[in-house]
Amino acid sequence: MDPVEVAAVPDAGPGHAWQNKCPWGTPNTTSISCSLADVMSEQLAKELQLEEENAAFPEVVAVAEGPFITGENTDTSSDLMLAQMLQMEFDREYDAQLRREEKKINGDSKVSISFENYRKVHPYDSDSSEDEVDWQDTRHDPYRADKPTTTPRKGFIGKGKDITTKHDEVVCGRKNTARMENFAPEFQVGDGIGMDLKLSNQVFNALKQHAYSEERRSARLHEKKEHSTAEKAVDPKTRLLLYKMVNAGMLETITGCISTGKESVVFHAYGGNATEEKVIPPECAIKVFKTTLNEFKNRDKYIKDDYRFKDRFSKLNPRKIIRMWAEKEMHNLTRMQTAGIPCPQVVILKKHILVMSFIGQDQVPAPKLKDVTLSSEDMKKAYYQILHMMQQLYKECNLIHADLSEYNMLWHDGKVWLIDVSQSVEPTHPHGLEFLFRDCRNVSQFFQKGGVAEAVNERELFNAVSGLNITADNEADFQAQIEALEKINEDHVQNHGKKLSMFSSDGDPPLDDE
């Protein structure tokens, strides 16, 4: 086989370097002989191609080297790596185009737009570019607020036409903007402080008033969250009191909630170890009065006019009234228990938590009178029992329930039990007889609807309980006489500074001692 002449580019000397760079120079070629098999070899073809590329492009400059293509040990044999490198280069070019668009659109305007959300590469990953604008390096920053100029004592600066007083619109506007830093931290003022923003006095005063209103509202909400009833009346302070009762051995365990109301929540608990001073029943009812005042705003009339607590009421803050409400129920239950009226037995009182005996069995509370279905004999028996208890309350306990209805009476062990006596007042209360008449109406209507033929109307029941024997043809006149008696009693107490023990049994108004 005849040898074939193949042209190759030899290494050029330093004297002929300009010939290699000049495209019109004549290359100095030498002929080397090789076989046809060597010419057909792929390895030889690659080598020749690399030599030609190196001769034509001796130095290859990377346009932008990213984190994927820097380093000597980069593995380029993986298709995934190559794809990531290509994608990174494309993203960088795309971001550079976006920056150029931003600069073209914004120009020197104070209000600018940004394509930051459309960029592919994060700012801290991208290299610094000449197209980026660094406002920190510029002398005129449109977003940098001008410092408020201080006004001298004389009240103005400048002379002649250039005089500027402290009431200047621009000066006042910048001062008002700087004053927004004094607002509460939770009041969002935006980025207006960092700009050359000028607020008029009217706008600043409106913002200031709104900031103060929001601050007071936030304080009220925080106070309500901390001190008011939460999670069914078990706020942190209430939980601490309950934990102390359990740790002291007074209660064994608290099982759960059995009743909820507007003013209180009742929990069931098992009694602990009894002591010599106190007898703790096996099952207890824990009545937790809600510490929020929303439900007590309209209930203060039951306690502020009660002569047992009238002197203390005016000296207490509103939150201590709730503790007094619990104390009042404890005293009323003690009176009823002494008179032998079926009611819960008081165990202990801790601030706004009242522990009593449980009316029921095995965590099941006794049903209310409105929820139980009784026979005619039991209904008749319950009616006479309630009539007797109302008379005992009025004459022996010197109390009026003031909220007596089928909702506050329980049926347990074949008899009626009275509960919820925190609002009970004495008959000498300025509205005591009105409360009694309301109780008589509720009891009379319930048993008349229940089919008790012996149930009398509210006026006859009122006279039977109080013994006043008020006569009237209609209900309006009857209530008018009740109000007249209450007025006489109130005037007597205000004039003599003491209460009357009881109304006269013969129905006459209270007599003056003189």
From TrEMBL:
The keyword Cell inner membrane does not apply. This is Serine/threonine-protein kinase RIO3. The keyword Metal-binding applies. The gene is Riok3. One of its GO terms (biological process) is ribosome biogenesis. One of its GO terms (cellular component) is cytoplasm. Interacts with CASP10. Interacts with IRF3; RIOK3 probably mediates the interaction of TBK1 with IRF3. Associated with 40S pre-ribosomal particles. Its EC number is 2.7.11.1. It is an enzyme of class 2 (transferase). It catalyses: L-threonyl-[protein] + ATP = O-phospho-L-threonyl-[protein] + ADP + H(+); L-seryl-[protein] + ATP = O-phospho-L-seryl-[protein] + ADP + H(+). It is found in: Cytoplasm. Its main location: cytoplasm. Residues 122-160 are annotated as: Disordered. Residues 223-467 form the RIO kinase domain.
